[in-house]
């Protein structure tokens, strides 16, 4: 078990390394969206989604699946891979709705780096600039209340790279800027682990969370890396308690996963080939 733990930590750190080095902000990418990725209004809430009521935190969903422009011709994004991704997203949401995560945040929040994002918005009391310390309560609030859909693109390269576009700063704008979610959320997934073993997927899952934090407006540069510190809080909740994965939260995760499989069934009809 110790050996497995060490191996997984090494694996995870290498994932961290690659992800951190390869995350330049991708400001625009209007091509390569998939059909059905247009104009879904976040404002018209469906009042009676039982999953949203039961698991109100981290409503980060899927706007579509696609391919990063760097993927070689002939790349296929299979239904099986898409379903693995859904499982990751369900487990992440499940954990972000537990007291265990909140406790871990409380315990580790002082280790979260200063910001490397700069933004302000009229009427918001939460401006931020590179090198400034976050208000950790506000930071947690904006993460828990995150509510956006992401276009997940398969990035079929040998190198272990995931990347995401940097969205508007939820820390500054959530609750103040009515257009805070009016942006295109992209996440390019390293394809190597889309069919991982249960032991390996904690690292990959936390990497996707890392990319989603970029979507939420966070960055890492200038010697500050709050993103990876927050990623590690999730990682440790899961990895520190293997039982969380297959046991303790299995029922909650399955419930969210099943609702996602239903909600996104229209995206799961075919193995998709890169055009
Ligand atoms: Zn990053």
**Number of beta-strand segments:** 6
Please state the average pLDDT score. Answer: 82
Query: What's the helix-strand series?
Result: HHEEHHHEEHEHHHHE
Number of helices: 10
Give me the secondary-structure category.
alpha/beta
Q: Residue share in helices?
A: 40-55%
Molecular shape: globular
Residues in β-strands, percent? 5-15%
Please compute the radius of gyration using only Cα atoms. Answer: 18 Å
Give the terminus-to-terminus CA distance.
44 Å
Bound molecules: zinc ion
Number of spatially distinct domains:
1
Task: Report the biggest beta sheet as strand number plus sense, adding barrel if it closes.
Answer: 4 strands, mixed
List keywords for this structure.
single chain, 275 residues, alpha/beta, 4-stranded mixed sheet, two-stranded antiparallel ribbon, 10 helices, binds zinc ion
Q: In summary, what is this structure?
A:
The protein is α/β, with parallel strands linked by helices. The protein is built from ten helices and six strands, in the order ααββαααββαβααααβ.
Describe this structure in words.
The chain is an alpha/beta fold. The protein has one domain (2-30, 55-273). The chain is 42% helix and 9% strand. The protein has helices at residues 2-21, 50-54, 79-96, 99-108, 136-144, 170-173, 201-215, 226-239, 242-248, 250-263; strands spanning 61-67, 76-77, 149-155, 163-164, 186-190, 272-273. The strands form two sheets. It has a four-stranded mixed beta sheet with strand order 1-3-5-4, with helices on one face. The longest helix has 20 residues, at 2-21. 41% of the residues are buried. Mean pLDDT is 82; it is low at 1-42.
């Amino acid at each position: 078990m110790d050996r497995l733990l060490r191996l997984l930590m090494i694996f995870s750190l290498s994932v961290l390394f690659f992800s951190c080095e390869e995350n330049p902000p991708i400001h625009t990418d209007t091509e390569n969206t998939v059909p059905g990725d247009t104009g879904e209004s976040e404002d018209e809430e469906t009042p009676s989604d039982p999953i949203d009521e039961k698991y109100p935190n981290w409503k980060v969903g899927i706007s579509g699946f696609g391919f990063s422009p760097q993927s070689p011709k002939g790349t296929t994004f299979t239904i099986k891979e898409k379903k693995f991704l859904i499982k990751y997203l369900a487990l992440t949401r499940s954990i972000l709705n537990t007291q265990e995560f909140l406790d871990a945040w409380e315990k580790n929040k002082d280790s979260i780096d200063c910001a490397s994002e700069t933004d302000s918005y009229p009427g918001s009391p939460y401006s931020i600039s590179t090198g400034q310390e976050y208000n950790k309560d506000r930071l947690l609030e904006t993460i828990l209340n995150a509510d956006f859909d992401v276009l997940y693109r398969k990035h079929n390269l040998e190198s272990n790279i995931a990347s995401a576009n940097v969205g508007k700063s939820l820390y500054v704008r959530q609750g103040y800027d009515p257009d805070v979610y009016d942006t295109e959320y992209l996440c390019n997934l390293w394809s190597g682990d889309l069919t991982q073993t249960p032991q390996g997927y904690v690292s990959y899952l936390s990497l996707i969370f890392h990319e989603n934090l970029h979507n939420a407006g966070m960055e890492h540069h200038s010697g500050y890396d709050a993103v990876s510190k927050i990623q590690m809080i999730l990682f440790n909740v899961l990895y520190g308690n293997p039982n969380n994965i297959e046991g303790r939260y299995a029922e909650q995760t399955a419930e969210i996963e099943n609702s996602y499989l239903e909600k996104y069934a229209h995206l799961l009809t075919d193995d998709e080939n890169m055009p």
